[in-house]
Write a structure and sequence with these properties.
The chain is mainly beta and 402 residues long. The chain is built from seven helices and 32 strands. The strands form seven sheets. A seven-stranded antiparallel sheet has the order 2-15-25-24-13-14-3, with no helix packed on it. A six-stranded mixed β-barrel has the order 17-18-23-19-22-21.
Length: 402
Amino acid sequence: MPFAARPIRKYLMLLLALGMALPGVAQEIVSGGPAKLITKFAFEQLTGGVVIVRGTFDKYPDSLNFIFDTGSGGISLDSTTARHLQLVLTPSDRTIRGIAGIKNVEYARNHTLNLPGLSVPGLDFHINDYELLTGVYGVKIDGIIGYSFLRRYLVAIDYDKKILSVYTPGDFKYPRGGYLLRPLIAGLPIQFAHVGDNRGVGSRFYLDTGAGLNLLLSNEFVGDSSLFTPKKNRYPTVAEGLGGKKEMEMAVLKTFKLGTYKFKRVPIYLFDDEYNVTSYPQLGGLIGNDILRRFNVVINYPRSEIHLLPNSHFRDQFDYSYTGLGLYAANGIIYITDVLKNSPAEEAGLKVGDILFAVDNNLSNSMQAYRNILMQSGRKVKLLVKRENEYIQTVMKIENIK
């Protein structure tokens, strides 16, 4: 993840029966009747491992982009997409909450999601505004697929081949050499894990495939657990969530352990949980897809099981880059929206409102391509921007967080 402004969203059910997740156990076979393969299809990945699947809505022919998200307590459509489809919306007293706000939502009820080889009828889509996600990713986000879909099926995500397979519920032979987690499924999967820095601490966390990061920890959890020493290096940043932008900090955690798998020197985000997303002290934060993408994952909500098998990305280097730079795409133009104080972006003379034309001679105007270049910490990169009617070339050194 190359930018200070990186998308993080939470769509949470108001009533979550929070409890201690059971410990994972090594296992290969679950006994009983067999699960049957329904379909398999390719998916795309964005920075941070976020999974994009393409599908259609009802009988409309347009192909839509959905984020596949265990961090969503339902299923949803973008408000602009809903208007384009001319859907009839029903007001409700339901609210959703995220890191940057709480809002009431309308519903498009009793509709069908069509994926390659599978139609899922009877879904109630809540409506939300995903313009911010679209701008940050540079890809149109039409909706999010979460619990309303996952509770019906067993889903296997192969991050090596970028293939998503959907099965009927039933007994499933998990691949050899993996580890079986037994999370509490209460709209969202909740799993016990260990974090360690100044001292080791165990807590519960959401497992969130829709978050393009490693770990997001609440400052309440970090403070009460004395996880970090007071002199721990922290880097200011901005992230996007429900309700808009939110100021956060970045740091590096010494160790993180999920099941039997241990990671060292993990870049993390720290935030003030003013909207009680984590219901602290019940949870310490969330585990994002930059951790989970390092496994091929089987998500089995009907059995309250998630199986992890290390894949070819397991030992990928973590992203320690820091620029203090926020980018946003709109109408085919990539704008600079954040330049944090004392950051590499400020030192390079960049300003909010600049239009980004090139990064290191890459003129693709691709948000994903620019992100990949800006992940290379320690490098100096050339940036070409347009400010008013003037083209400016500057050099920015990408800092390495410690």
